[in-house]
């Protein structure tokens, strides 16, 4: 994902996108996998003079990493994130969360909130979670934009259109249940075939998520493996 300014998540360039960065807040969110075992990380690069907003989401992530381990509740992690972000004078994005990671499943349980909750999930050894604070100078809420560039396989459905069958085969063989960008598709008549796959439920879209007031959003993210006596950050270099 390369999400700019008010866009919090799920934007990636379209096939003909020739945009050039200006004074933007740029969120780079990258996932990689080895045999389906996923690592997910994100940073924000400020090009427009809002460095404190970047520091706020980073502080939320640091606060969560200090706390996380076996026996810790996700509700308390959310509280630590919220306290760190509001300490900078900003709001967390309340209706976005971190998430669990499973083999070939990029978004699984448990959800990891960015605010304190009354109840949470108790983490246990072996859990893999992506902790993903978002901070904003706006309302603290996002909604779906009328833009979709990222998709995922939802399950096999009968397809009468040969191009749709060919594209479904490409998606399953290349990406399985992992997200993919529209511009990556190579099958003949891919755009038309993708539309049919979405209509049939074989493929689902991930609409761009943007801040409801048009305000800026920053993001920070690491993937964490819960160990017996703490955690290991699998996306940290060095």
TrEMBL record:
GO cellular component, as recorded: cytoplasm
GO MF assignments: initiator methionyl aminopeptidase activity; metal ion binding; metalloaminopeptidase activity
Domain of life: Archaea
GO biological process, alphabetically ordered: proteolysis
Enzyme Commission identifier(s): 3.4.11.18
TM spans (from-to): none
Cofactor note: Binds 2 divalent metal cations per subunit. Has a high-affinity and a low affinity metal-binding site. The true nature of the physiological cofactor is under debate. The enzyme is active with cobalt, zinc, manganese or divalent iron ions.
Ranges for domain Peptidase M24: 6-136
The reaction(s) this protein catalyses: Release of N-terminal amino acids, preferentially methionine, from peptides and arylamides
Pfam families: Peptidase_M24 (PF00557)
UniProt keyword list: Aminopeptidase, Hydrolase, Metal-binding, Protease
Gene3D superfamilies: Creatinase/methionine aminopeptidase superfamily, Winged helix-like DNA-binding domain superfamily/Winged helix DNA-binding domain
Cofactor: Co(2+); Zn(2+); Mn(2+); Fe(2+)
Alphabetical list of InterPro entries matching this protein: Creatinase/aminopeptidase-like, Met_Aminopeptidase_Type2, Pept_M24, Pept_M24_MAP, Pept_M24A_MAP2, WH-like_DNA-bd_sf, WH_DNA-bd_sf
Family to which this protein belongs: Belongs to the peptidase M24A family.
Function: Removes the N-terminal methionine from nascent proteins. The N-terminal methionine is often cleaved when the second residue in the primary sequence is small and uncharged (Met-Ala-, Cys, Gly, Pro, Ser, Thr, or Val).
Protein name per the record: Methionine aminopeptidase
Source species of the chain: Methanothrix soehngenii (Methanosaeta concilii)
């Amino acid at each position: 994902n390369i999400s700019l300014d008010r866009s919090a998540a799920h934007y990636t360039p379209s096939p003909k996108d020739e945009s050039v960065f200006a004074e933007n807040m740029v969120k780079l969110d990258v996932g990689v996998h080895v045999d389906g075992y996923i690592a997910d990380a994100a940073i924000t690069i400020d090009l427009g003079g809002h460095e404190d907003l970047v520091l706020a989401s980073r502080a939320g992530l640091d606060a969560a990493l200090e706390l996380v381990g076996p026996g810790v509740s996700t509700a308390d992690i959310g509280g630590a994130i919220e306290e760190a972000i509001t300490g900078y004078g900003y709001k967390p994005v309340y209706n976005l969360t971190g998430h669990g990671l499973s083999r070939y499943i990029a978004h699984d349980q448990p959800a990891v909130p960015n605010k304190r909750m009354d109840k949470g999930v108790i983490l246990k050894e072996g859990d893999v979670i992506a902790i993903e604070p978002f901070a904003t100078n706006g309302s603290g809420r996002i909604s779906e934009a009328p833009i979709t560039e990222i998709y995922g396989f939802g399950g096999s459905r009968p397809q009468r259109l040969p191009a749709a069958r060919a594209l479904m085969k490409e998606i399953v063989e290349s990406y399985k249940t992992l997200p993919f960008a529209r511009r990556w598709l190579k099958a003949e008549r891919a755009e038309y075939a993708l539309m049919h796959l979405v209509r049939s439920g074989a493929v689902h879209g991930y609409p761009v998520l943007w801040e409801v007031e048009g305000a800026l959003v920053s993001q920070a993210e690491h993937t964490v493996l819960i160990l017996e006596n703490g955690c290991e950050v699998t996306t940290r270099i060095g």
